[in-house]
TrEMBL record:
Keywords assigned: Membrane, Transmembrane, Transmembrane helix
Compositional bias annotation for Polar residues: 151-178
Name of protein: Uncharacterized protein
TM region positions: 12-44
Regions of compositional bias (Acidic residues) in chain numbering: 132-142
Region Disordered, annotated ranges: 132-178
């Protein structure tokens, strides 16, 4: 009986010690290969980080320029066109900056994401122009029923809606004579520039701008030129 207990204990010890011994032999034999593999991984990570830091340093001036021009509102399309980089690189860069500066982002249906970086000039203008705060609150609190009611009105009056369909066109002459930058558009609508930056890619921007325009003119934003053009009625 005692012999069986000793044999079972020895068997358990061998089961435990054999894998350890094999691992030690493999490490002792192949340690140069393992060390070389570890060094390759470390060098690759360092090179990847260096390339990223170099890319960030290259794009930063363009990013800062867009922040100043658009009062903190930047889209991946704007950055990609301005910095001459690929779209996925622009998205990755803006995600990195949004994490760094705790920026907010908003997904525009069928158009992409917009990033909002809060700058000191934007905050100062908010305090200097109380109307801009009201516009922001109105933007956040306005229900979707206004859009649905407009759609119902077009459905009940198909003749008028069909007559309005061809009106949303921009002629070359209008582009040359009536284009406005974002700051001029904000002055015309009597709102803050950042408010225009938030709304310019919205599907209902034309109706929103018409309600605030002193001449009841609808406006449209062109991402290709970063300018605003009146819609010909």
């Amino acid at each position: 009986m005692t012999g069986k207990v000793i044999n079972s204990g020895a068997t358990g010890f061998l089961v435990l010690i054999i894998p350890i011994a094999l691992t030690a032999v493999v490490v002792a034999t192949a340690w140069p290969v393992l060390l070389a593999l570890l060094l390759i991984i470390i060098i690759w990570q360092i090179a990847k980080q260096w390339q990223w830091q170099r890319f960030v340093k290259q794009v930063n001036p363009t990013f800062n320029q867009l922040i100043r021009e658009n009062s903190g509102c930047v889209t991946p399309v704007d950055l990609a066109m301005k910095a001459n980089i690929q779209g996925n690189q622009a998205n990755k860069f803006l995600e990195h900056k949004a994490t760094e500066f705790s920026a907010k982002s908003r997904e525009i249906p069928n158009q992409g994401r917009v990033y909002y970086f809060l700058t000191a000039s934007a905050v100062q203008n908010f305090f200097e122009e109380p109307a801009s705060l009201e516009d922001v609150e109105e933007e956040e609190e306005t229900p979707v029923t206004s859009t649905s009611s407009a759609q119902q009105a077009r459905e009940t009056n198909p003749i008028s809606s069909s007559a309005e369909a061809p009106t949303a066109t921009i002629t070359e002459q209008q582009k040359d004579t009536s284009s406005l930058i974002q700051a001029e558009m904000a002055d015309r609508l009597n709102v803050h520039s950042s408010t225009v930056g938030r709304r310019k890619l919205d599907p209902d921007f034309a109706e929103w701008s018409r309600q605030r325009d002193p001449e009841n003119i609808s406006w449209q934003y062109s991402p290709e030129t970063n300018l605003f053009y009146p819609l010909k009625n």
